[in-house]
Amino acid sequence: MSRSPVATEGHPVLGDLALQPVEEDPSRVVDLVAEGERLLEKARSSGRGRAVRSVMRQPGQNAILLGLPGGGGLPDHATPGPASLLCLSGEVVLASGDAEWRLPAGSAHVIPQARHEVRADVDSVCLLTVTLG
Prior knowledge:
It comes from Ornithinimicrobium tianjinense. The strands form 2 sheets. This protein has a 5-stranded antiparallel beta sheet. A 4-stranded antiparallel beta sheet has the order 3-8-5-6, with no helix packed on it. It has a single domain, classed as Jelly Rolls (Sandwich). It is of the alpha+beta class. The chain is built from 3 helices and 9 strands; from the N terminus they run H-H-H-E-E-E-E-E-E-E-E-E.
């Protein structure tokens, strides 16, 4: 999969993923609950406010698990393309401009095609799906 340098530079998730090896085994099943707990622990110990891992990748699509400890999140950034956010546990706030959407566990929202941020007031795990050209 190719990504332009512009898409990853300065993007809090894609920039972090660019540093990780690519796991492309389409036959593997991913335990999102267990992996989410590992990411939360990693985020807490790193002090970065987040830990990310691509859990499924195929041409044009990337599913990324986010571990966001309370007080963490993703800073304001531009969208790399069409994307959606599913909150698996905890609760996050997706904000863009003057709009905010509160996503409790089990809810999802389309990410606006504009600058946005994600805040976690409590420990949260989310699945971000990004469509890449």
